[in-house]
Amino acid sequence: MGVSSDTHEVDSDAPASPCSTATSNRARGQWTDAGKENDDGPHLRIFPPDTNARVIPQQAHLGRDAPRTLLLSNLAEGTSHADITSAVRGGQLLEVFMRPRAKYASVSFVHAQDAGAFYEYVRRHGLYISQKRVRDWELYWSADHFAQKVKFGASRNLVIRRCDPQLNEDEIRQDLEHIHKLVVIRAEFISGNCHVSTNSVFCASFARTCMMSRRKFKGSRIEYDVDECAQTLDRMPKHTRGLSTNATVLKTLPGANTMPNRFQLLGLDDE
């Protein structure tokens, strides 16, 4: 199975870490009925190994056993990866995974404290995805070790600098279709560069390696790009009745000059 459109579905029961080889999250907690449909709206649950798992350790923000993943269930019909990344702010993302038919998705932050801050923010202010409010929020534990790669500059997004002016989004998708479980959310061409947004740090890292070996990219420089979700929580899209979430979030994307230096987010360190 290869690269897909924005509503990609994979053959797996576990909602987290589709591109990594990390330990299964099921070993850390039993799944409940949180993924079942509920007429009250979308839900997000934690499946912790114990009842105290909601307390996020201060030193666990990049650890292997950090509560950094949020599970959303009962999403609106047709919700896409782009809808989710447009609605999430407050921290760089490790991975976004969806199962459209089951109407659920998981969102993993690189830093556990960012996941916790986002969780608290939406508890107070609410969150709308595809004009549907997410009503229930919890975190669950993720043993994904790939967050450590971010310390060396990895991101789920890529930028192809000085790309061929004839290159287009369809060609980018075709070049990456062999990468298992990679989702290309979008590819945008700005000032001679191609900005590629994906669903996973791991998959983006593999895609970067593959593209650097291709003849068509020999004259280009392929780097990790800024993650728009790493914008601060005060840049969260505001829900307006009658206005789509995507239309609202356009004001907060990097191209809208909401950040003095859009690449400063890549300078992460282990505090």
Automatic annotation (TrEMBL):
GO molecular function terms listed in the Swiss-Prot or TrEMBL record: nucleic acid binding
Basic and acidic residues composition bias: residue spans: 1-11, 34-43
Region spans: Disordered: 1-46
Bias kind Polar residues: ranges: 18-27
InterPro entries: RBD_domain_sf (IPR035979)
SUPFAM superfamilies per record: RNA-binding domain, RBD
Matches recorded under CDD domains: RRM1_3_MRN1
UniProt-recorded name of the protein: Negative regulator of differentiation-like protein
Organism: Hapsidospora chrysogenum (strain ATCC 11550 / CBS 779.69 / DSM 880 / IAM 14645 / JCM 23072 / IMI 49137)
